[in-house]
Design a protein that fits this description.
heterodimer, A: alpha+beta, 4-stranded antiparallel β-sheet, 19% strand, B: alpha+beta
Chain lengths: 329, 168
Amino acid sequence: MTPLTYLRAADAPEAVRLGAAAGAAFLGGGTNLVDLLRETVARPETLVDVSALPATIEETEGGGLLIGAAVRNTALAEHRVVRTRYPMLARAILAGASAQIRNMATVGGNLLQRTRCTYFYDTDGSRCNKRLPGSGCDAREGFNRIHAVLGASEACVATHPSDMCVALAALDAVVHVTGPAGPRSIAFGDLHRLPGDAPDRDTTLAQGDLIQVVELPPLAFGATSTYRKVRDRASYAFALVSVAAALKLEGDRVSDVRIAFGGVAHKPWRALKAEAALRGARATQQAFLDAAALEFQDAEPLRDNAFKPALAGRTLAAVLQALATGEAA
Amino acid sequence: MSLIVNGAKVSAPADARTSLLDLLREDLHLTGTKKGCNQGACGACTVLVDGERVLACLTLAVQVDGREVTTIEGLAGADALHPLQVAFIEHDGFQCGYCTPGQICSAMGMAAEAGRGVPSHVTADLAAEVTLTREEIQERMSGNLCRCGAHNGIIDAIRATLAAETPA
């Protein structure tokens, strides 16, 4: 680690003031940032610990939730309302990391965790435009089994590693931020960026912008939702492909559906094309596969990850079939 | 800044970069907590902070200011083993022993989580009470790797001690 100063913010205004300084970084649970510090991928001069800021989960009048950014992942997954009204979110969190890490990690930190692209972490031997802009990308022609097939760029093929964020994308979460320019609200789909020619920027947040609250709007059919993760071992591994989905049927037709994919892009991938194709369609295995194929029609697989579009399609079909038949997915 | 380690008040390190793991091992000479990967992938450094299992390698010591840390050395009295430690011996829950302190601290935290109803990835009904079946323990302990392959014994020891009245 490079030398740094540790400060603890007493409240959000102080956090923003301290965090706005050049070289400052917010610290939540530290499960990603401490590792990045140790590997010298991250080299902040000041750590502003925001893990002691409000960590409450409140119900809104409409039946949604306001989740404090410092809420720990475990606390969110075990919350009664999350388990009953948003099971895809509880299951996404429980599919991620290990119990120890979920106990430490905050909601805000989960949103801001960085890619697990191995070239991003390899400070000694690899070129990475996300770590050092303009240096090149060794993943594009390298070992890229875990990398993106949608929305990538010449500069970067990294994926976003979060499970929780895939569910938040499907749930149309809203991220309430405060910063040097005052408070604002960001639709979840606008928080994370595609890499383009600036893959060093994961999100649309500016220096000093502090995530305060993640809002879950009510979703009437949210109880019929789940999350499925496909990975190289049964537990404690990042996703090759994952699916968060909610399904509402009327008779044998899909009346509404929410779908997001993980492990396929630089951001959690909300599948708006697949959703549009399925609304009003018969809820059949073939319709589910066709919808996924539509979503992945512009996929650009790399040498080692050409399996991802088909795997994502089969996973989506399995998840929607399970939701349609009322089986636990 | 100070924290409580196994009941004793301890000063936080002057250098904020010091991990809780290095504070325990290098400054306090509590070497029961092990450094395996030092990057959050193996679980060997698992300790309890205010009763919750966490990874000491990914925790800066300054982050646990004012909180209570329990390590393997603080689990039992000075002259006796904790029942879970005894069970690890009885059920061959280790070979080399390097992962064992982390496994045991993790299991203590795991039992508390299950007791208050935290579901897991393999829990079929998110609203139901948790039953610590073998499958549940496997999933809940997946953050603790054992390269000797003693996982079956580890799970047997945990079941015998912390989940004795549950079905297979």
